[in-house]
């Protein structure tokens, strides 16, 4: 009965959905679902251990650094339709030990290969040739996006493909409804929906690899720059197929905050000067956007939207299938991503309810992937977080409470905005609320 009720509410049927009854739909008294309450208590008790952070650690930034370091040791390979995985890995292992490898399809078959050491990438690139094309010329920009060519195609003509391509996009709504119908309770359905739609481990690896490939392009102009992910790709609420939001971070370039040296002289770099920080951002993105358009392998449909409130470069990365947005020095956006990541890590019910409300909103045409006067997924997420803060007792703390728990290293002022809140999840007390979602 519960399964039928939820599927009925999920199917697209206009804008008269049961949003006003969310309080009654999503939370039931613990006496009616004692087994689910035990599960919630267990999840709450374990959530600090699951973050894997130390007493003074910041799990969000630690995770970003680990992912970016993994990406630096990875390569993206366009493979022939028929390829034997064992033979491919044996060939690649001549350059070094391989940690992981997976395959997917996007305008062809691709393999993401992560080596255990960064030196293996240099070895692989030394043995990679620049293609010779008749009647055309190539732009000799070397990247970690390469193509695998068969020297003797006939040798593998009779060899069946041994690879399994992993899905990188969300399943259709009808298939989702079918999956949810097998659950016994609404509570189980909400968690099943989250598990089905959330970003997979391999998809996250691919996102950071694309980010790393873009950094290689930007580093031609700014060798010490970094390109970081923000938004759905890293905040814990990303759905398979969501856009890839990145920002070019130039704040870490050495010499910006250096003091004058002791002695009679100080050397300064001679640099171009512009009228404002915004003008500098526009010029930088204009040049990087042109470089992506002219030299970035697999980057198509490049648009330089420089007069927007937040200037950006938009393009499609065909090898990964991602729609990408690149901004510059967008530090508030990554701080917002950190806050959402923190809330999602505090309690499993947060992500489950956010995923469900977003899915319901899309099915009822309340949100849309087409730009327009729609409510955004970010706004829906904020409303769900506010709702959970107002439960009795609250499931998650307010931003003011997180600010009160902040330590000296958490204090941060960005563009005149106080963005201070505790980053160490171990300083936050677990909730006493054991209500279930169903």
Task: Please give a quick description of this structure.
By secondary structure, this protein is an alpha+beta fold.
User: Structural class of the secondary elements?
Assistant: alpha+beta
Total of helices: 14
Shape: globular
Rg over CA atoms = 24 Å
Order of helices and strands: HHHHEHEEHEHHHEEHEEEHHHHEE
Number of strands: 11
- Determine the N-to-C terminus distance: 12 Å
What's the quaternary structure here? single chain
Q: Could you describe the largest sheet, including whether it forms a barrel? A: 5 strands, mixed
User: What are the segments in which pLDDT stays under 50 over at least 5 consecutive residues?
Assistant: 1-9, 11-25, 28-41, 43-56
Determine the fraction of residues in helical runs and give it as a percent range.
Answer: 25-40%
Overview of the structural elements:
It is a single chain. The chain is an alpha+beta fold and 438 residues long. The protein has helices spanning 2-10, 22-26, 34-51, 59-72, 85-92, 119-126, 173-180, 186-197, 201-218, 277-295, 331-346, 348-363, 377-389, 399-404; strands at residues 74-79, 98-105, 109-115, 145-147, 226-230, 244-249, 299-305, 312-317, 322-328, 413-414, 417-418. The strands form three sheets. Strands 5-6-9-8-7 form a five-stranded mixed β-sheet, with helices on both faces. The protein has a four-stranded mixed β-sheet with strand order 2-3-1-4. Strand 8 and strand 9 (322-328) form a beta hairpin. Helix 4 crosses helix 9 (201-218) and helix 11 (331-346) crosses helix 12. It is globular and about 70 Å long. The two termini are 12 Å apart. Residues 1-9, 11-25, 28-41 and 43-56 have low confidence and may be disordered.
